[in-house]
TrEMBL record:
Family, similarity comment: Belongs to the CPA3 antiporters (TC 2.A.63) subunit C family.
First-listed, main subcellular location of the protein, grouped into a coarse class: membrane
Bilayer topology term: Multi-pass membrane protein
InterPro entries: CPA3_antiporter_subunitC (IPR050601), NUOK/Mnh_C1-like (IPR039428)
Protein name in UniProt: Na+/H+ antiporter subunit C
Organism this protein belongs to: Sulfurospirillum tamanense
Transmembrane helix keyword on record: yes
Range of residues in the leader sequence: none
Transmembrane segments: 6-21, 28-51, 71-92
Length: 116
């Protein structure tokens, strides 16, 4: 199970880095989102999964689930959603102002070296 989760995290992180290095804004947004998913999954798995255990310590209970990783992941999901919405709005505004979606603002094929 650990190998499968490690492969999923590695795949998400690798694809996220690959897409974040693209010259267009929407693949960059998708890449950052995939990186956020990889980090969230990593944090969640590092907290270990406990089934049918209380998240809060009480008298007489020896085993409990640690609520800190779940709280961290929930906070990270909210922050990444807000940042993704902000970056999408910023990309739409840049596309409207510049007429293209290149991250450096120069969208002509001569300056980027892309073949169409």
């Amino acid at each position: 199970m650990e190998v499968l989760i490690a492969l999923i995290i590695a795949t998400l992180a690798g694809a996220g880095i690959f897409l974040a290095l693209k010259a267009r804004t929407y693949p960059v947004v998708l890449g950052l989102t995939m990186l956020a998913y990889a980090v969230n999954l990593f944090l969640f798995v590092m907290g270990r999964l406990h089934v049918n255990m209380p998240p809060v310590l009480r008298d007489g209970i020896e085993a409990y689930a640690d609520p800190l990783p779940q709280a961290l992941v929930l906070t990270a999901i909210v922050i990444s959603f807000g940042m993704t919405a902000f970056v999408i709005v910023l990309a739409l505004r840049a596309q409207h102002e510049l007429g293209n979606d290149h991250v450096d603002g120069t969208g002509s094929p001569q300056t980027t070296g892309e073949v169409q």
